[in-house]
């Protein structure tokens, strides 16, 4: 794994968390229980601290960074979608940050919010609890319903189980040259939210 001590700070990673070998974790980064960090992620705690609380997932190609002296916190159960950037922001408990969204410095996202894919959240924006946020620049468009948060929470539970599965079964292999006749099918226990 690409885990680096920097300026006296060694990352702290709970044994149940899974940090993909192709992710990069540098410096003052604290990763909690059952956290998933996907390949291509860069968690750069060189100028400040990154705290990723229990049950979070930071999916493929995300970047987490900050200005000097700032702490970035992803609170319990935060779900950071593929390619998102969190720069000097705080993401509340059980929030969803959509794919390729950008959260700028001093943004505060309170708990159970949904930030849409490709959303640009400008510096210092404060997003109240249970807000749905979309657009560039970001706008609060409605309140998160119970059904929406149940769907989000169910998806996050799947990611919370992924680190254990990866610890148990991920292995580097040579590829097959043809498909096996008994190749298994994948589960269909979660799907995109119906509008």
UniProtKB/TrEMBL annotation:
Xref: InterPro entries: Hexapep, Transf_Hexapept/Carb_Anhydrase, Trimer_LpxA-like_sf
PANTHER family: DYNACTIN SUBUNIT P25 (PTHR13061), GAMMA CARBONIC ANHYDRASE-LIKE 1, MITOCHONDRIAL-RELATED (PTHR13061:SF29)
Any Pfam family matching the protein: Hexapep
Lineage: superkingdom: Bacteria
Record keyword Transferase present: yes
GO molecular function: transferase activity
Record lineage: Bacteria, Pseudomonadati, Bacteroidota, Flavobacteriia, Flavobacteriales
Listed name of the protein: Transferase hexapeptide repeat family protein
Region feature Disordered, mapped onto this chain: 173-195
Ranges in coiled-coil conformation: none
SUPFAM superfamilies with a match to the protein in the record: Trimeric LpxA-like enzymes
CDD domains to which the protein is assigned, alphabetical: LbH_paaY_like
Keywords on record: Transferase
């Amino acid at each position: 794994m690409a885990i680096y001590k920097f300026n006296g700070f060694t990352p702290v990673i709970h044994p149940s968390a899974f940090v993909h070998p192709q992710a990069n974790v540098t410096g003052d980064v604290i990763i909690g229980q059952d956290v998933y960090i996907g390949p291509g992620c860069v968690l750069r705690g060189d100028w400040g601290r990154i705290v990723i609380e229990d049950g979070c997932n930071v999916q493929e190609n995300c970047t987490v960074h900050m200005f000097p002296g700032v702490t970035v916190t992803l609170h319990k159960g935060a779900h950071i979608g593929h390619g998102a950037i969190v720069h000097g922001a705080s993401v509340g408990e059980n929030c969803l940050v959509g794919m390729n969204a950008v959260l700028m410095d001093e943004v505060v996202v309170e708990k159970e919010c949904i930030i849409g894919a490709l959303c640009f959240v400008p510096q210092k924006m404060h997003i109240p609890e249970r807000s749905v946020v979309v657009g560039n620049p970001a706008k609060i468009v409605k309140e998160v319903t119970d059904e929406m948060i149940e769907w989000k929470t169910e998806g996050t539970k799947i990611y919370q189980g992924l680190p254990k599965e990866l610890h148990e079964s991920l292995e580097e292999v040579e590829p097959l040259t043809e498909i096996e006749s008994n190749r298994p099918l994948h589960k269909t226990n979660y799907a995109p939210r119906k509008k």
